Amino acid sequence: MLLSVLPLLLLLQGPPPPAERAPLADLLERAQRRLVASDRSGARRELTRALALYPASPAVRNFSGVVEAEDGNYRAAEAALP
């Protein structure tokens, strides 16, 4: 339940100031490192943050969809894919 509400809450607060905005490549790299370390919840947090900052990014949406599909969350995977 919390994971489904968290992206909405992040979107409602708006994007952070430019000084706090992490580059997309950095966010995706951190998510990838967490996946390699078997930290799926950490990878999801990074991807949720990336989606909040870059909601139109096909790379973020695709990565999120792949993670969801690997976890068996096929509906969430379909919704995430661009």
Task: Give an account of the 3D structure.
This protein is mainly α. It has one domain: Serine Threonine Protein Phosphatase 5, Tetratricopeptide repeat. The chain is 71% helix and 0% strand. Helix 2 (24-36) packs antiparallel against helix 3 (40-53) and helix 4 runs antiparallel to helix 5 (74-80). It is flat and about 30 Å long.
Blueprint (SSEs and pairs):
Blueprint lengths: L1 H11 L11 H13 L3 H14 L4 H13 L3 H7 L2
Identify the notable features of this structure and list them briefly:
5 helices; 82 residues; flat; disordered N terminus; Serine Threonine Protein Phosphatase 5, Tetratricopeptide repeat; mainly alpha
CATH topological fold name:
Serine Threonine Protein Phosphatase 5, Tetratricopeptide repeat
Mean pLDDT: 80
Secondary-structure element pattern, one letter each? HHHHH
Largest sheet report: none
- Classify the beta-strand content into a percent band: under 5%
> Which class of secondary structure composition applies to the elements?
mainly alpha
Number of helices: 5
Task: Write down the Rg.
Answer: 12 Å
Which blocks of ≥5 consecutive residues have pLDDT under 50? 1-13
Give the helix proportion (percent range). over 70%
CATH architecture: Alpha Horseshoe
Number of individual domains: 1
N-to-C CA distance: 23 Å
CATH first level: Mainly Alpha
Please provide the count of β strands: 0
